[in-house]
Amino acid sequence: METIIIIVFLAGYLAITLEHNLKIDKLIPALAMMAILWAIIALNHMSVFEVNAELRELEPTHIDEILLHHLGKTAEILVFLLGAMTIVEIIDYFDGFATIKGYIRTRSKKKLLWLFSILAFILSAIIDNLTATIVLITILQKVIADRNTRLWFAGMIIIAANAGGAWSPIGDVTTTMLWIADKVSAGQLVIHVLIPSIVCMVVPTLIAGNNKAFKGVIEGDFEEEAPKSKHGSIMLYLGLGAIVFVPFFKTITHLPPYVGMMLSLAVVATFAEIYSNKKFSISSLDGEEADHTGHHSPVHHSLSKIELPSILFFLGILLAVAALESLGMLFHYAESLNTAIPNTDIVVMLFGVGSAVIDNVPLVAASMGMFGEPLDNPLWHFIAFSAGTGGSMLIIGSAAGVVAMGMEKIDFFWYLKKITWLALIGFVSGAAVFILLRDFVLHG
Questions:
Q1: Using CA atoms, how far apart are residues 124 and 135, in angstroms rounded to an integer?
Q2: What residues have CB less than 8 Å from 90, skipping those under 6 apart?
Q3: Per-residue model confidence as pLDDT tens digits over 76-99
Q4: What's this model's pTM, rounded to 2 decimal places?
Q5: What are the tens digits of pLDDT across the range 152-174?
Q6: How far apart, in whole angstroms, are the C-alpha atoms of residue 263 and residue 423?
């Protein structure tokens, strides 16, 4: 039966990886794979186990209990992401991200490269690397008319956004997973991964700065747009501050992160409703429509804009990996992997390379079932770095890459030829700095 389980998982995984070729949204194979795996386990009355991380052994349990356990852990991540996504959509509703465009004053391509890279690095640590990439490429399209130049900028934004997401507990789905699962704490994650992530962003940017694509100045005039809402900048800073508040809330209360995210959402939504009601009152006096949505609730509008396919994909893939973990397969695989490759640094770096080929979410989910190291063990910090930054090596290797590919129609082989080597240098440089920092400074 275990052979059938593996075949189903690999077939589902292949369908997810070939999403663009098959023209089938990856949430469909993810959900089907999850349901089929658990059905096989139930129908064949297969033994399920819970991994005791402290004793490093498998403890028998019942399928209902273990499924409920994994659903609870997955729901924590999904509810957290729903809250964060809604706050970002509320900021966008008030056109808050247009405030960022106001910071762009230079015409020098090299200065713009550094400006976009630093913005991507900082923004992705707060609103996650996927959203940061969408925001910055939208701004990029308004600032740079030449498409070939934009492609280079987009490639560097992907590297910077993935590097920025790796050191923050709210910067990438994988780091959020590790944080919520109590594998890393926010403070220690920043201490261990921030400097390697900066190196991972700075080294490729320094090298790319000498490329002819970043020589000279931007031609033409920047598009000046009137802000759609006078509350945009207030909502931007309020929304970003509310998301940053979540790790502090968890540290103070020791409650799961989604509780803090719901509080932050409530605060942001309150101000959004107040500002929207003011706008509604004024526009009603003028005899105009409140806004393009037909109602004046920014919260309702923002909830309707959330990317639910991503949420369902995470549900499917995390519970599918949980099925393998419950059968003890990941535990035994980890044991054999540690025997074959005794150096865990090499194993984790292979995870990073692997995350460029296949999605980093299931890789990290699998690693959490494979290793039993305690909270804030450097292994988890290295996994956060590798899984977060390794995906930059291929355009399909990260959420940031996939969305940039869609927005700018970036060719897979163009990225492979022009950007991959830069991402690889950044990844290896950052990994080397992480190991040196860990062995000689933090744990020397």
A1: 10
A2: 235, 239, 268, 269, 272, 298, 299, 302
A3: 989 998 998 899 899 989 988 888
A4: 0.82
A5: 999 999 999 999 999 999 998 88
A6: 37
32-80 confidence digits (pLDDT tens)? 999 999 999 999 999 998 877 665 678 889 999 999 999 998 899 899 9
Write down how long the chain is: 444
What residues have CB less than 8 Å from 246, skipping those under 6 apart?
Answer: 170, 257, 260, 261, 264
Q: For the chain, percent helix, then strand, then coil, each to nearest 5? A: 75, 5, 25
Q: How far apart are the first and last CA of the chain?
A: 47
How far lies 368's CA from each of 137, 231, 411, in Å? 33, 42, 33
How far apart (Å, rounded) are the C-alpha atoms in residues 141 and 154? 10
Q: How far apart are CA 62 and CA 67, in angstroms?
A: 9
- Which conformational region is residue 105 in: left (phi greater than 0), alpha (psi within -120 to 50 degrees), or beta? alpha
* pLDDT tens-digit readout, 388-412: 999 899 887 888 888 888 888 888 8
Give the separation between CA 389 and CA 200, rounded to whole angstroms: 8
Beta strands in 13-117 (DSSP E): 48-52, 57-61
DSSP symbol at 275:
H
Report how far residue 156's alpha carbon sits from residue 71's, in angstroms, rounded to the nearest whole number.
37
Residue 377, Ramachandran bin (φ over 0: left; ψ between -120 and 50: alpha; else beta): beta
How far apart, in whole angstroms, are the C-alpha atoms of residue 393 and residue 390? 6
What is the rounded CA–CA span in Å between residue 280 and residue 382?
Answer: 50
Confidence of residue 201 (pLDDT cuts 50, 70, 90): very high
Cα–Cα distance, 436 to 105 (Å, whole number): 38
Cα dihedral across residues 93, 28, 319, 384: positive or negative: negative
Tell me whether residue 346 is exposed, middle or buried, using C-beta atoms within 10 angstroms of its C-beta: 0 to 12, 13 to 18, 19 or more.
exposed
Question: Looking at this protein, which amino acid is placed at residue 273?
Answer: E
pLDDT at site 71: 94
Token pair of 218, please?
């931007």
List the one residue out of 321, 301, 305 whose CA is nearest residue 313: 321
